[in-house]
Amino acid sequence: MFMNLLALYKRSTVNVFKAHGLVQASIADSVTESFSAIRTVRSFSGEKRQMSEFARQVLKYESSGIKLGTFKSLNESVTRVAVYISLMALYCLGGSKVKAGELSVGIMASFIGYTFTLTFAVQGLVNTFGDLRAALAATERINSVLSDAEIDEALAFSLEKDMKQKKVHDEVLELYLVNGSNEKKQSTKTRYMSTLKFGSSVRNLAETGDICLEDVDFSYPVRPDVEILRGLNLTLKCGTVTALVGPSGAGKSTVVQLLSRFYEPTRGRITVAGEDLRTFDKSQWARVVSIVNQEPVLFSVSVGENIAYALPDEYVSKEDVIKAAKAANAHEFIISMPQGYDTLVGERGGLLSGGQRQRIAIARALLKNAPVLVLDEATSALDTVSERLVQEALDHLMKGRTTLVIAHRLSTVQNADQIALCADGKIAELGTHLELLERKGLYASLVDTQRLAFE
Ligand SMILES: Nc1ncnc2c1ncn2[C@@H]1O[C@H](COP(=O)(O)OP(=O)(O)O)[C@@H](O)[C@H]1O
Ligand SMILES: [Mg+2]
């Protein structure tokens, strides 16, 4: 009966072990997801949201750890008490048999010896198996991380620079807190106020002013000797659509990276309404720019939460999410799924098709309602049916925003207000579709080759 009780007890602890393991895995997942989607996180300035999510997981880990610890120690003590009670029974029973002369002392002694050995061996084995199971699970995770480690050194470099800058900033704050001298208090105060004022005006500037890339040179920090952009000039007129075309590798996506401030120009500057972007806080700027690219990154939460990530620090009502989804041609397919807006999209949105992921990304961008919009090959990876649906959604999204479109298929950019052709790190041709065709330059020949390819 005692053994039965023990077995029942052990079975009930299995769940505690499992829960702890799961929480541990979800901490790792949350970190992996944040870092593998770091560009998306930064482009929505969702750092705070990701950090608080991580903290939430850690707290969960703490409480499940305490539970597990309690269970483990209870388990250990019950097991030990059981072992010693059985030993005691053995002594009493054996002793009485020896006394009655039914058993020799030698046999009794070796019996006790064997029992001890067996008990410790079994206990050791059980413990080792437990450790082994944990170690194997950990190894598996390490391997899975190592096997698809795609480290973007360039981004890591600029992130590190950011962190260093932030640290200096905090030291100032710390000094101010420790010394508390009046003079310092004053200067810090005004500095913080001026940053705040700037923050709220970035949006106004972006809503009313042009964005200019002025004489921009750029090389990626990992390859400083390779100049990707050389004296690039381009103006994105407020509220109009500019298309950026050119051969692949010309630096179009690099322009997007600069506009979203994942990197800063090596020389020259980018301005909005004449103000250098570098005077604004990066996360304030992130709120002003929406990026939709070829492979939008979704988080492994529900469809609705993915759309609401547009405003990571705010409460977003379900109506707003639905409104955005409708405008993005996504509502229909979302409600046809078993759990509607609560359907989980799987790791990196893997349970959805490319076109569906794209429309969710567009809904997210619509909800973000940023005045500047960048579309980098947003429809390139889609088949014609989903391309049409996504294109409709995009047309909706572009209305009234300063837009930069990069598209592989030139047929999709013909209606842009201006088309810029990027080659050799600068803008080689600029004008409307018809103007550029008349020029019979590189754009005209690109259009010709594509026409041939489609006929
Ligand atoms: N993160 C990066 N680090 C280093 N070099 C890069 C990076 N991204 C792109 N490049 C290089 O910059 C050049 C321009 O790339 P890209 O801007 O992606 O071209 P496009 O979008 O026009 O096809 C390419 O030669 C590419 O190898
Ligand atoms: Mg590109």
From TrEMBL:
Protein name listed in UniProt: ABC transporter B family member 28
SMART domains in the cross-refs: AAA
GO cellular component, one term: membrane
Ranges where the ABC transporter domain occurs: 211-449
GO BP term, pick one: transmembrane transport
ABC transmembrane type-1 domain segment(s): 1-134
Entries under InterPro entries matching the protein: AAA+_ATPase, ABC1_TM_dom, ABC1_TM_sf, ABC_transporter-like_ATP-bd, ABC_transporter-like_CS, P-loop_NTPase, Type_1_exporter
Keyword Nucleotide-binding annotated: yes
Phylogenetic classification of the source organism: Eukaryota, Viridiplantae, Streptophyta, Embryophyta, Tracheophyta
Keyword annotations of the record: ATP-binding, Membrane, Nucleotide-binding, Transmembrane, Transmembrane helix, Transport
GO molecular function, one term: ATP hydrolysis activity
Compartments reported by the entry: Mitochondrion inner membrane
Species annotation: Capsicum annuum (Capsicum pepper)
Keyword flag Cell wall biogenesis/degradation: no
Topology with respect to the bilayer: Multi-pass membrane protein
